[in-house]
Amino acid sequence: MKCEHCTRKECIKKTKTDDQENVSEEAPSPIPEDRETGEFHKLADAKIFLSDCLACDSCITAEEGVQLSQQNAKDFFHVLNLNKKCDTSKHKVLVVSVCPQSLPYFAAKFNLSVTDASRRLCGFLKSLGVHYVFDTTIAADFSILESQKEFVRRYHQHSEKERVLPMLTSACPGWVRYAERVLGRPVTPHLCTAKSPQQVMGSLVKDYFARQQSLSPEKIFHVIVAPCYDRKLEALREGFSSTSRSSLGADCVLTSGEIAQIMAQSDLSVQDATVDTLFGDSKEEMVMRHDGASSDGHLVHVFRYAAKELFNEDVEEVTYRALRNKDFQEVTLEKDGEVLLRFAAAYGFRNIQNMILKLKKGTFPYHFVEVLACPGGCLNGRGQAETQDGHVDKALLRQMEGIYSDIPVRPPETSANVQELYQQWLDGVDSPKAQETLHTTFQSPEHCAHSLDIRW
């Protein structure tokens, strides 16, 4: 039977009932049970399964399977235990970066405000032995700002001979993996080259922060807390473009649900703590987000920027109009009866598949599409919005959506810290270093599965 997320005509995805113990058939545990007897061993029993991932397991190579098996709590606790031993040469600075879409989950779980939930989470992580806890909003600032400039550049370049539109967002790893491994050309040239917030955060921690602390990147163990299992695959993506594991921007990704499980099993005494920043001793006193219903808000911010840059139109309120369903919506800029910009949000693989079919036929009318693999967006990531029997927890999701919508919005252009980083870290806004650090390339296999013909 083909599951709703499968990208193959014949699904070979394992389920939890089919294989309760294996993440991948060829993926041995990186830390044998008899070696890990430290203080945290009893907490390190959270497992991940390829069935939790939105990508089909047939696109996981054996090498990736081994690496994927390290994306769990056991690897995290292994580092915590090493840090408590006398051999300081093996000690690492533990950094945890938390995605803003994970915080509503903890707020709902603890019945706290999102700021208080952030402080509770930070306090717990530091009680474990984590040295720094960051918020990834600043990384999303960079991703959005670079996406804005790229869209305007593509708009000017677009022609019948050079069709660089629509621009498709690339912040969702489930969607990107599907595009790279299954669709290939002609889809991958439409992917925005701006790195995702997770990838930018990896560079901030392993490059900028490491320099500020006079540390080599391999002395930092960087953990991402995210709502989605596909973020684990995204962490591997950068590593496979290099020969060294130390080049990974994120060494380990744990879902919100995995962290909640660790918290539930812990009897540590916890004091709330304020989230750190990348700038010395300053702290993040208040949780902020970008202007998106359940995501990092690429569509809204790119739309406003493009309207101003291309047509000198100031857009205050961005109005979504649902079309096929609530997960396919469009936003238009109109003047004197003419549509100047037509943007869309396509969430969930059914809507993505319809989008690809129309793109292939040349009947897709949009300039820009915010593409997310999860129906309902990032808040509905399968690492935090599922019941124990694997279904969407609709009541929890509605609660998280309400919590997320109440978080104050901060436009990325208003961040003085981002502008400072552009100058001090990247040698300027449009410098070669900024291009190299904040942008990526995509694989385009010549022979891909005939997925464009799959009916969902």
Largest pleated sheet: 5 strands, mixed
Shape: globular
Number of strands: 11
Helix/strand order, N-terminal first: HHEHHEHEHHEHEHEEHEEEHEHHH
Spatial gap, N to C terminus: 13 Å
* The CATH fourth-level homologous superfamily of the largest domain: Fe-only Hydrogenase (Larger Subunit), Chain L, domain 3
SS summary, helix count:
14
Q: What is the level 1 CATH name of the largest domain?
A: Alpha Beta
Q: Which second-level CATH architecture of the largest domain applies?
A: 3-Layer(aba) Sandwich
Q: What's the gyration radius in Å?
A: 21 Å
> What class would the helix/strand composition place it in?
alpha/beta
Mean pLDDT over the residues? 83
Low-pLDDT parts are 1-5, 7-37, 44-58, 239-246, 447-456
Strand order, largest beta sheet: 3-11-10-9-8
* Overall structural domain count: 2
CATH topology of the largest domain: Fe-only Hydrogenase (Larger Subunit), Chain L, domain 3
Quaternary status of these chains? Answer: single chain
Note the beta-strand portion.
5-15%
> What is the helix content?
25-40%
Protein name: Nuclear prelamin A recognition factor
Keywords: Nucleus, Phosphoprotein
Family: Belongs to the NARF family.
GO cellular component, one term: nucleoplasm
Tell me the layout of helices and strands.
Layout: H1 62-68, H2 73-83, E1 93-98, H3 103-110, H4 114-128, E2 132-135, H5 137-157, E3 167-168, H6 173-183, H7 197-212, E4 220-226, H8 230-239, E5 252-255, H9 256-265, E6 275-276, E7 283-284, H10 298-311, E8 321-325, E9 328-335, E10 338-347, H11 349-361, E11 368-372, H12 394-405, H13 416-424, H14 432-438
Helix pairs in contact: 3-4, 3-12, 5-7, 5-10
Region (Disordered): 15-36
Organism: Otolemur garnettii (Small-eared galago)
Keywords: Nucleus, Phosphoprotein
